[in-house]
Structure formats: structure tokens, C-alpha cells
Amino acid sequence: MQVHVVGAGKMGLPMAVHLRVGGHAVTVDDLQPERLALAREAGLPVRQGPDALAAADVVLSSLPHDGALLAVAAQVASHASRGTVYIDTSTVSQEASAQAARLLQPAGVQYLRTTVSGNNKMAEAAQLTVMASGPRATHQAMLPLLQLLGPQQFWLGEGEQARLMKLVVNLMIAQTSAMLAEALALGRKGGLRWDDLWAVIGASAVGSPIVKAKGVQLVQRDFTPTFTVEQMLKDLNLIVDAAAASHVPVPQTAATLQLMHAAIAQGDGSADYAAIIKAVERAAGLGDPP
Description:
Elements: E1 2-6, H1 12-21, E2 25-29, H2 33-41, H3 50-55, E3 58-61, H4 66-79, E4 85-88, H5 94-104, E5 110-117, H6 120-124, E6 129-133, H7 136-146, E7 152-155, H8 161-189, H9 194-203, H10 209-218, H11 229-245, H12 251-265, H13 276-283
Parallel strand pairs: 1-2, 1-3, 3-4, 4-5, 6-7
Antiparallel strand pairs: 5-6
Helix pairs in contact: 4-5, 8-11, 8-12, 8-13, 11-12, 12-13
């Protein structure tokens, strides 16, 4: 198929590469020249404007926020051919996604919400978990393409279920970082060594896959981002808003959101979201471990 990828960021670019390796004719567009340069280096043709959308059998996007989704959906609705499939992998609100659906339906575009769980390294390894919702027949037709992104595939319903599922997963990811922040600060303040804390936590009943994966990096105090504090703050705001709309109390998540604000205020907004560990350490009067 002819696939046009909109958004060549840390997630979109490796997804585009996997689609090309899988045998599809892939073109790429992005607003940032440096991302387009990386796409060209990866052997992906850059194609921009309405003609790129009109030529595509599938448009796949990886976008940063609600506004970007609605802008791209409007362009797809205006320029894509009837029968085109629009696959969006972004983390956005259910409301914006539903609005995009209303834009696309009169244009005859088939709309799949295919949120993904996993960081950029998992995207590069084609190990993402894909959570899809939208027309089931369209999902079945696109499943061979989606399987190029990762082995775990779920269809959750005809509407916005994939958007909500992504927020559910990210709620738990954010809360894991908050749990670690408090536990590690408590241990350090009581005299436990940083290396020992990670060794025991990783080997214990709480050593979940995400804790073990983060521990490989964080035991070295390496906060190089796979997903930044600022990105997690955006997702937590979506989570809190979704919970408020459904009258679901999420007091722990609301507290974690405040820790993200603290980390940003302390200069760690572009660090990995686990930098809230440092925010809690500072609140406890702790500096970096020896």
C-alpha cells in the first residue's frame, strides 16, 4: 500500500521505517526540518501538501496534542480520496478524537484510533502494544500493517475506546514513577544505599517489567528521556480531565501531576518523567547519592 506518515518524531519515524521494511511504499511529512532530514537519512521520501494525502491508501499520524490531530484530520478530510484509511497513533483526548471522526465521516475516510504503548526504543524494535478502536472490518484489513509495529494487538470497540485505554495505561505508568519516588526517598533518607535499593526492589515482588526496565537506567542516575516530564504532564492532564468527565476520583493521580509540575519548576521538564524521583528527594532534603 501507499502509506503517508504525518509526524516523523521519536515514535513516528521508526514506525515509518518498519512499514517500509514490511513492503509498503512510505512517504513522510513533518513540520520540523530536522525530523525530515532524519527521515531522508533513513531512506524515506519526503512528500508534503495535498497531493501526498490524495495519493495515499493509508495516512498514519503520530502527533503531539489535540490541536495537531484536528488540523491533520481536517486536511485528510479535505484532500484524501474516499476509502482512504486514516490511522492515528497519538495520545489525545476522547473529545478531540470524536471531533476528528465527525470531520472524516462525510469524506468517506475510514478512521482507526490506534494508540500505542511503549517508548521510542520499543518503537525502534517493533515491540509496541497497539490498542485499536474504530470500524472492525477496517481494523481487520489493516491488521497486517499494524502488526509491523508490534506483536501485541487489541481491538477494543467501534469508538473512542483506544483513546481511553491509552490513558488507563499511562495512569499506571505515571503512578509507578510516583511510587518509586517516595520509596527511594524513604530508603535513602533512612541510610539505604542507592544501588542496594534498586537491587532489592528489582528482585522483589514489586519488580514489575517497567520497574526493572527503568532500573537499568536509573541505577546510574541517568534521566535521559524516553518520555519527558512535560510529555507526561500533558497525558496526566488528559487523564484527570477524563476522570472528571466520568466522575471518577483519582486523588493519587492528581498528586502525581503536581510532582510533574514540581520537576518542571526545578528545571527537569525535558528530563525523563522519572525525574520526579529527584523532586521528591529534594523535598526530603536529599541531594544526589554519593
